[in-house]
Fold each of these.
Amino acid sequence: MRLSTKLSGLWLAACAIAATSDKAVTNEDGIRSIPLRTHTLNSPYLDSDMQSRWFDFGGNTIIRADQYIRLTSDRPSQEGWLFSRVPLTATNWEIEVEFKIHGSGNLHGDGFAMWLTKQRATAGPVFGSADQFEGLGIFFDTYKNNRPGTVFPYVMAMVGDGVKSYDKSNDGKSDEFMGCSARGIRGASVPTKAKLTYFQDKSLKLELQYKAEDQWELCFSTEEPPTIPSVAYLGFSAETGELSDNHDIISVNTKNLYDTKNRPDPSTQKPGSGSGRQRGKGRPDKKKSGSWTWFFFKILMFVVVAGGGYVGFTAWRTQQRRANRF
């Protein structure tokens, strides 16, 4: 089902400013999260006009309001997508997606993708979306083309520069930023979820739930995350070829993240990791603490040396006086 809108970008931007919820939660690590409605999607998905205020849908996507958004059905040669209408401009965020990959055949394919890219709402050959994208793509690949030694389904991240093409014939091996095997993610007996967490210039982490509820498996994590475009749209897409599957999006929940502890930026504590930033005041500064320790150590050494010199000088004068008596 292709849904369109005549709402202007200005109106959407104005609504986006007012669309953050005040239901903030701070966890034990001091990370405060605020739900972001502009990039959140839950049943029934559509409003009273049978449209979505914040997302566009296209291709072979169908919507069952009480259950799922189906990007592709279990039929050959399908492709479908959904993309946010406004960009995700938050500096730090968490996106949790519940999805379901399932079908009736013993052979199945091809998979679906999660996008944070400058481009939006364009069908193409990369899991149903456009190639030569600029931004981040996360691919949930269920069909192995040519990648010896890799267990499928395989989940991988690719950073696109707007020029580089996805190497589909080799399952993106040469383009991989990070990834992991996720056997059991298709047709799992528990709700399957992906949680992508990003702190600008600090970290990127992908966790998966497919073995047991509330049990998150780390897929990948890095303290040197790629640069995501400042104007990036959140999207999902899927495709089938000769082989097929149902690729369903059940829910999308996005949150702005804030670090209330004002931790020191790791890039200021190790050479070559990026530009320095002002350290936070809410936590002791290790480097500054070390400088004070060295300062007091030098004072102590001065006292010891001066004291030793004074004792030596006193002993020498005493010896000279005794010698003069004779």
Amino acid sequence: MAGKFEITSEIASFGGKILKLTHESAVLRCKMAVNLYLPPNQGKVPVLFYLSGLTCTGDNCLEKGFLQAHASKLGIAIVYPDTSPRGLGIPGEDESWDFGTGAGFYIDALKEPFKGSYNMYSYINDELQQQLFSEFDQLDSSRISLSGHSMGGHGALTIFLKNPGKYKSVSAFAPISNPINCPWGQKAFAGYLGDDQQEWAKHDATELMKKYSGPKPAILIDVGTGDNFYKQKQLLPEHLEDAAKSVGWDVQVRYQPNYDHSYFFVSTFGADHIAHAAKFLGTNSTL
């Protein structure tokens, strides 16, 4: 046991190391697993939080996205958290793949029986960061960026927009960009937040962007045109594009021909997203 974290294994990767960690979360009321990639640099390093999508854990992108290959060259640490509390035994949390376990949506639940434990927003934005920066001196708490995939892209965008100035940059792979208008978001928000759609809008990147007041760094978003969820109108990146244009924000949405929703897509464009974060995190190296 090292401080608040137990290091369950240490794995060499691209000159740096992966620390597989567990810790007790007060806000989620359970033990959580998290992966931390430390680049080979000495001294303080900036930090990218990568938020994963529906059904994923903190292992999926670590093992299939290979972001640490690029982060190693640029001197960036990556945190890969989990996507929900685990093993709470709440009725209904394991009945479907897009709600409950593995589907925390990076919000704080207001509706029972999820209220009081499904608090992924507070976990990512507050508790996990406080514990990591307290435990690992090499992590620079003044230089943090966000990225994520699908539900995690939604999480990265909304956490960025809710905290003006806290994060240096944000990017996303195939984000759920307008959840109040897609089936995934409507199901999750009804289950976690209740029926008040004004409350839903507080957790929607498209709606938050329209009212945002703070620094506006360029945002990079990639979406595959072969992504079935894009075709099914679950992602709605065009709605986010319209909101960005209405407020004069440089949001680059790149529609990548033929790419799907998988980690083949994420790994293909991962270098671009790490480089995007590096521009704002102030690293001295280049890919």
